[in-house]
Amino acid sequence: MSRLTITVNGQKVSGNNDEPLLVQLERAGLQPEYQCRNGMCGACRCKLTAGSVEQREAMAFVAPGEILACRSIPTSDLSLEFDYQVQLSPSAVNE
Ligand code: FES
């Protein structure tokens, strides 16, 4: 497992090349939107503006340049953009 840097709406967090992005962002204290967590609903859709991911099988529609955070494993340092401000969880703020 390699350590990576994930930039989310301009904010840098630590990541790895082993787990889905959604899990890694949540561990970093961010709260991206999600519903199904298995590639069905599209709620976790975001733009991949730099870097690369391995996109696992998913049913939800994504436009060119978009990925599903719940089904994407980073393969490099990368940058993501969500269409909304990704909140920090209250527990992360207090740490
Ligand atoms: S949370 Fe449903 S597709 Fe990612």
Quickly describe the structure:
This protein is 13% helix and 37% strand. The chain is mostly beta strands and 95 residues long.
Can you tell me about this structure?
The structure is a single chain. The termini are far apart. Helix content is 13%, strand content 37%. β1 and β2 (11-16) form a beta hairpin. The chain has a single domain, classed as Ubiquitin-like (UB roll) (Roll), CATH 3.10.20.30. The chain has two helices and nine strands. The chain has helices spanning 21-27, 90-94; strands at residues 3-8, 11-16, 30-31, 45-50, 53-55, 66-68, 72-74, 78-81, 87-88. Residues 34-37, 39-44, 60, 68, 70 line the site of FE2/S2 (inorganic) cluster.
Largest sheet: 5 strands, mixed
- The name CATH uses for the topology is Ubiquitin-like (UB roll)
Total number of helices: 2
The SS-based structural class is mainly beta
| Helical percentage | 10-25%
Name of the level-1 CATH class: Alpha Beta
How many DSSP E strands?
9
Strand order, largest beta sheet: 2-1-8-4-6
CATH architecture: Roll
Distance between the termini: 25 Å
Oligomer: single chain
Structural domain tally: 1
Mean pLDDT: 94
What ligands does this structure carry? FE2/S2 (inorganic) cluster
Gyration radius over CA: 12 Å
The fraction of residues assigned to DSSP E strands is 35-45%
- Low-confidence stretches at least 5 residues in length (pLDDT < 50)? none
- Assign an overall shape: globular
Organism: Photobacterium halotolerans
Cofactor: [2Fe-2S] cluster
Protein name: (2Fe-2S)-binding protein
Family: Belongs to the 2Fe2S plant-type ferredoxin family.
